[in-house]
Amino acid sequence: MKRNMVQWLEDIKAAPVKKAMPVLSFPAIQLMDITVKELISSSDMQARGMKLVADRVDSAASVSLMDLSVEAECFGSQIQVSDDEVPNVIGSIVSDEDEAAELEVPEVGAGRTGIYIEAIRKASEMITDRPVFAGVIGPFSLAGRLMDVSEAMILCYEDPDMVHVLLDKCTEFLIKYITAYKETTGANGVVMAEPLAGLLSPKLNAEFSEPYCKRINEAVQDENFIVIYHNCGPSVIQMADSIFSNGAAAYHFGNAIDMEEMMKIAPSDKVIMGNVDPAGEIRNGTPESVRAATLGIMERCCKYPNFAISSGCDIPPLSKWENIDAFFAAVDEFYNK
Predict the structure, then answer these.
(1) What percent of the chain has pLDDT over 90?
(2) CA dist list (Å): 132 to 49, 55, 192
(3) What are the DSSP E strand ranges found in 123-270?
(4) Rounded to whole angstroms, how far apart are CA atoms 138 and 130?
(5) Residues 121-129: what's their mean pLDDT?
(6) What secondary structure does DSSP assign to 79-101, as a single string?
């Protein structure tokens, strides 16, 4: 459903009571009694899962799967799939500049990208009371999976030309992929996950992530379609200037940082979201601990009009729904007290 997303962000900042916007999709498998493997293989299941979640929780938006294996698999990477965990990329397919130069940029629709695009099209037809966001990986995080995550940092120093060649191709693909969501699905934007860049130094982030994210943001964003930049790395406060220069419409940060410290330096005109621990609390905590964690962050950060409470990252598939419900109940409690 088409809507003015610039105004949506302005409305969030102006609202005295703000709805939570967790990255909540994979736990739908429990509502449907299916596996992760079944979910990632079916557009119907993904759309139905998003609808079931939207019907259960009063969130600011519906956010699709943060599956950071989709794009790498599309390029030819091998992935590991299980019944109850998010898929992982195995090994590497690029190790030097020649291989990077020879790597073909896949067409949108290759691998599972066609399934994911179709899922968002179907979900956008079913969920009309709030924005719908697709999930995509960021350029450096994609390049890192093609090189092997453990080698990516080293190669930034030892073979930066190769990394830039690869980043150009990843960026070219991501622009085409996000444009397909924009033009064919009815999505209102994407959450672009760039967690691997959160392990870089500020200088390296400014070279290997920021300009490529900026290129993507400039290519796809308009009044009706926005990019929410997500980074759950531990160094995002140190590289905040670079991150906030990439041109995203809004920003989402993980629980590896003190959210209040980020809010002190974040631009007041940007909506900033985060950062209840999705694994430690929502997956493995109790309703009582989730409540305490959520209220603690809100008490310190909701004094900033541009802050919206969220999970720190994608909520794991087997997170207990009583904990997810406790998160939303805590949000209601905070605003009703």
Answers:
(1) 98
(2) 13, 13, 14
(3) 132-137, 189-193, 226-231, 250-253
(4) 24
(5) 97
(6) EE--SSS--EEES-S--SHHHHH
